[in-house]
Design brief:
Order of helices and strands: HHHHHHHHHHH
Structural class: mainly alpha
Shape: elongated
Number of strands: 0
Low-confidence stretches: 4-23, 277-283
């Protein structure tokens, strides 16, 4: 549910004057209201006090959201996420354990960071890899902060962070996973409409047919001549089992058994050569 961030805050004239020693003017004195909140049972009065507390601290949530404004998300959405974190902080806060601001700031900040971690990645990246990405990003910034410093290598970053070079590589790859490029994106400014999709290869299904035929050759050579002839008539001349039976002077049932037995032998021979598991094959039931 969206939180109304345009009308829920009090007017500046109604906002309490912050006590001396406060670092921000968005830290209102709400200790009494928090104590009142803990004393009330669930009901309209408690909801009203809760709403007052959220409204009073909403400017602080907006300030925290503003810290993340340059990371590809709109400020309006960030404020909504921060407001959700504020509501959670108000609901979970225990006044006997200290100041609300000390509890709310990490709660709201964590909510915004979770939003980026879980919702803003174009590709789903495990949390461990996201953490590697952050370490690599910070290390690169620290190693290149002096003008004229060359781009650090994976070994430089590994030595700076204590990570292995493989971990650095995973973090650097994750840095390219935050956003994606459309397959329809044009690769040149010309009018030829050449897109990224035009550079990608496709799977050639005929390769599987070639592989299967080559795998079946040895098994077919080992079959008796009549069995090979039956398979040829059935699968290459597309004759029915009835026609094959009439041509050879045997029963259709016998033809069906010979086809099944021959196919099983060829399949077993092919799979033995590949060392793989059997695949589901087509069972011939044509009459």
């Amino acid at each position: 549910m969206l939180i109304d961030i345009s009308t829920s805050s009090h007017d500046a004239s109604d906002r309490p004057t912050p006590p001396a020693g406060r670092h921000h003017d968005d830290s209102p004195a709400t200790e009494a209201r928090f104590r009142r909140l803990t004393e009330l049972e669930h009901g309209p009065e408690r909801e009203a006090v809760r709403d007052e507390l959220v409204a009073a601290w909403l400017p602080m949530a907006h300030r925290i959201a503003g810290r993340f404004r340059e990371r590809g998300e709109s400020l309006e959405d960030l404020r909504q996420v921060a407001a959700l974190g504020l509501v959670k902080a108000v609901d979970r806060f225990d006044p006997s354990r200290g100041a609300f601001e000390s509890y709310a700031v990490p709660t709201i900040t964590g909510e915004v960071k979770r939003h980026f971690r879980d919702r803003m990645w174009a590709l789903r990246v495990p949390r461990r890899v996201q953490e590697l990405r952050n370490k690599v990003r910070v290390a690169r910034r620290e190693l290149t902060q002096n003008p004229g410093t060359p781009e650090p290598s994976a070994a430089d970053i590994a030595a700076h962070t204590g990570l292995t070079e493989d971990e650095v590589g995973a973090g650097m790859e994750a840095m390219e996973s935050f956003s994606t490029l459309s397959l329809d994106a044009e690769l040149s400014s010309a009018d030829d409409g050449y897109s990224l999709a035009d550079t990608l290869g496709t799977s050639e299904t005929s390769y599987d047919v070639v592989v299967d035929r080559e795998a079946a050759k040895e098994g077919l050579r080992q079959l008796p001549e009549r069995d090979r002839a039956i398979l040829y008539m059935r699968f290459f001349e597309d004759m029915t089992q009835s026609r094959i039976a009439d041509q050879l002077g045997i029963s259709q049932m016998h033809v069906s058994r010979l086809i099944s037995r021959s196919c099983a032998k060829v399949r077993d021979e092919a799979l033995e050569q590949r060392g793989s598991r059997p695949r589901a094959g087509r069972r011939d039931t044509t009459g």
